[in-house]
Amino acid sequence: MTIDKLRYHEQKHAALARGVVFKLTFEQWMSIWITSGHYHERGCRKGQYVMARKKDCGPYAVGNVRIITVTENHREVSSKIRSRNARGNKGFLGRKHTEATKGKMRQAKLNRVRD
Length: 115
Description:
Blueprint: H1 3-17, H2 26-36, E1 49-53, E2 65-69, H3 70-87, H4 99-114
Antiparallel strand pairs: 1-2
């Protein structure tokens, strides 16, 4: 297996491990990277480039990915998390914790205080 195919499979399996659908063939994946001009600058460190999904949604697919810096990708993810937190946890609104859950929460609080 070539190093290029190894990198492709690494990204594909990492996406699947996160529950993200990966629809790119090796040829499509390689074409996107080559066209970007940043293939040899790939990585997870500051100043390097990653293949990111638009708005961090949907599958890795032609038309839904772009090559951006790690910093840009982190900024995008951070703003998505901030906006989600700003909305609050409305999915639990109006519901009550069970007695078992309340007990677990009390125990967790006690454990934090002891540490």
